[in-house]
Each structure stands twice: as C-alpha cells, then as structure tokens.
Amino acid sequence: MSQVVFVLVPGLHLLDLAGAAQVFSTAAEYGHDYRPTYVAEHEQITTHQGVTLLATKQWPDLTPDDLVVVPGWSVRPGTTNGHLQQQTLDRLTAHHTAGGTVASICAGADALGRAGLLNGRRCTTHHDIQHTLARRYPLAEVIPDVLYVTDGRVVTSAGIASGIDLALHLVATHHGPAAAARVARQMVVYARRNGNDSQQSAMLRHRAHLSDAVHRVQDRIETDFKEQLPLTDLARTAGISERTLTRRFESATGSTPLRYQQLLRLERAEHLISHGATIESAAHSVGFTDARMLRRLRSRPH
C-alpha cells in the first residue's frame, strides 16, 4: 500500500478514524510508505464528538496498491445510513473492481453494503447494528462478535477501537508480523486476527509480560520467522543462557521459542491459503521445507 484514503462522513466517531490513522502514521514513521488522505463530500466534517475536521473533496488518483477506508459514524437505533452520495459509493466500487482494497470500521460497513461490496461476502460491524446490517443486506453474511473479517479485498471491522486491530492486520499482511508488532508496541495496544472468534493473534497474544529478554527474542523470531533459528542464536539475542531463555520464555508466554515460531508460520500460511495459495506454496513461503509440517499444524486444535 501507499495511499490510505479515509472517507469522512458527518457524525463520524473520532476513534473510528484516529485509531486506524495512527497505525498507518506510526508505520510510516518506521519507514513504510503510507500516505494518509482525508476526503469527504464537504470540506468541513463535524464529528459526533463535536470536533470539526477539514477534508478535501478531490479524490486522489488511486492504484490497486492503495487502500480506501470508511470510518463509522453515530447512528440512531435501527439505522445505519451514512447519507453518502451515489458518486462516492461508485468510487468505492470502482476501486475494488480495479484490484484495490476497501475497508470499513463500525457503521462504515453500511457504505460498503450500499456500494454492493458486501454481496456474497462475510463481513462484520459494531454489535449494536449487526442485525440491522444483516437485514438491510441479506446477500451479505454478517459474522457477529468478531473484531474484523477479510473477504475478497473487502475488510470490515467492529466498532471504535477495533479499527486499530484492522489496521495492524493490514500492516502485518503487507510488511510482516514484526512490523505490526513494532507499531502495536509503540501504540501500547494488542493486535488480533480475523475469524469466527475473538482470538488474539499469535504475534501479540504472548506480549502481556515484562521480560525485556523475552521481548527481544520475540522481536527476533517475528522478524526472521521464516528462517532456521537455533536456540543458541536466540539466547545470544537475549544475552542469557539457552537454559535460562527456555525457562523465561515458557514462563512469560506459555510456549517454547520453537512453538512460537511455528504459530507465526501457521498464521501467515493460513492468510496466504485464504487468499488462494496452495498448501505447498504457502508452506514454502513461510519457511517449511515441505507441506507435511504445515498440514500437521493445521490439523491440531487451536
């Protein structure tokens, strides 16, 4: 990705916008090419919290590598309408048709529904309006009580802070788990993965501890999870003995360094498979010498 275009709607929730925007801004500070742009149908947008934002009515030229995000807005019970004009909805559709990714946060899913992008796709939104969204767009499969869902370059997330999880997921997808972990740690948040539950992503599921040595080893594994990582090298990274590292790592994370690396490989492979890769190519891409180990890991209960 390069450009991240946020489509602002009157009454939008500040955190729906600010959370995701902060992720991409922080990623840009770490050298990743994200350039946020804020467009709207009016140059001034008043948020639900009373802050007035300035936007441009002129859309930038988009490429398939760019991302368009529709943050959510305040809705009355039983409604979701963001009052976007058809011209704006057509831009969402055209970008997706051209190969681009379109995302929504909270009630922003209604805009994707009006644009026809939810038809035949899995999606989600804030729990208060899940039933309304499902009723308005019966061709969509609304998944309840998940943080975000990816389906065919359409990414939808639940309300408010889950926009952060969505943005971190996109950073991890394009730049690897270490990049997303670095951004998340800077923002002092956790990242989670999509699916039919609220399960946390492996890359940050085991980060709620205070061991600097273990965090350094996790950083190393997340950066080089495709490579062979001997315990001696990881112990050298931590500055402690192999035996001490094993003990501290298991105490802090409940896992061994090897199992942690396998979790990262498995999650990345699952993402590749969900986007059309074969098991064999996914296994090779994440560092397995063949697909047998990946098949064994996929068959285990999580």
Care to describe what's here?
With 302 residues, this protein is α/β, with parallel strands linked by helices. The protein has helices at 14-29, 86-97, 109-114, 130-136, 162-175, 177-187, 202-205, 212-223, 231-238, 242-253, 257-274, 279-285, 291-299; strands at residues 3-8, 35-40, 44-46, 52-54, 67-70, 101-105, 122-123, 141-142, 148-151, 154-157. The longest helix is centred in the last third of the chain and has 18 residues, at 257-274. It is globular and about 60 Å long. The two termini are 31 Å apart. 45% of the residues are buried. Mean pLDDT is 89; it is low at 193-200. This is Transcriptional regulator. Pfam families: DJ-1_PfpI (PF01965), HTH_18 (PF12833). It comes from Winogradskya consettensis. Residues 215-302 form the HTH araC/xylS-type domain.
Descriptors:
302 residues; Rossmann fold; Arc Repressor Mutant, subunit A; six-stranded mixed beta sheet; 13 helices; 10 strands
Compile the SSE list and pairings.
Elements: E1 3-8, H1 14-29, E2 35-40, E3 44-46, E4 52-54, E5 67-70, H2 86-97, E6 101-105, H3 109-114, E7 122-123, H4 130-136, E8 141-142, E9 148-151, E10 154-157, H5 162-175, H6 177-187, H7 202-205, H8 212-223, H9 231-238, H10 242-253, H11 257-274, H12 279-285, H13 291-299
Parallel strand pairs: 1-2, 1-5, 5-6, 6-10, 7-8
Antiparallel strand pairs: 3-4, 9-10
Helix pairs in contact: 1-5, 1-6, 5-6, 6-8, 8-9, 8-11, 11-12, 12-13
In short:
InterPro entries: Class_I_gatase-like, DJ-1/PfpI, Homeodomain-like_sf, HTH_AraC, INH-QAR. The chain is an alpha/beta fold and 302 residues long.
